[in-house]
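Data deposition worksheet. Section B asks for the primary sequence of the deposited chain exactly as it was used as input, without tags or linkers unless they were present during the calculation. Section C holds the resulting structure in token form. Section D is free text for depositor observations; keep each observation to a single sentence. Incomplete worksheets are returned to the depositor.
Section A, Depositor: J.P.
Section B:
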Amino acid sequence: MKQPGDGANLYITSQQGVFTTIETWYAKELQFRPLDMELVTTIAKSPLAVIAKVNSKTNTPQELLARMRDTREPITFGLGAGAHKLVFEFLMDKGRGNDQLVKSVMYRGPAQAVADVAGGQVEFGIMPTAVAYGMYKAGKIKYIALASEFKLAALPEVPLWKDSGMPGLNIYGAWMIALPPGTPKHIIRHYQDLFVPAIRSAEARRFFDDNLMFPVAAEQSPEGARAFIMKIREQWIPYVKNMKLD
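Section C:
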């Protein structure tokens, strides 16, 4: 039997990168404005983390900021998405990093970036905490700090940037379900009715907990998801416009 959503294109999109950086950094490549998409729900979030290779001499946020400011040798950060670049630029700006020696490299995705940090090709990386967790448990990388408003129960030992001289640095790898611009409301409702109960299920909760992610009930409606997007746009787009890509 044909369902109301048959034939629709689902897009699993990030929050921070797609809705705060793309319009400024990649305007010529855009086919439509991200805000024109029809939002269904936020799935879950994982705070972005700054990580380091396991044998790095840097262990704390304060040590990292001091090195970024005073270094006399090159330092490289591996990044996997636009939101990761936002964390890097925020640290460089607020921490007065040496932009002649401290650089970032954009990878095809966070998995490739964390692999190179673990392998020692780059000393530092910025990515969702969940992406780095497997390498952390294997002893191949270490966390420096989380860009989060609160600590994660699975990582109580990892400090927060907001408590380390970087208030306001709260950025998440967050995944949303979106539909093409102009999708009829009954199809939006169909997908919300399908996905939101699944996101709230016990099985999903276990998966989120195991992968250092968490759902946000206030963002599980189209209206709630869009309200959060507008909030982060207000905070970050003015900042993004003053940044330069490598």
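Section D:
Residues 47-163 form a domain with the D-Maltodextrin-Binding Protein; domain 2 fold (CATH 3.40.190.10).
DSSP finds eight helices and seven strands in the chain.
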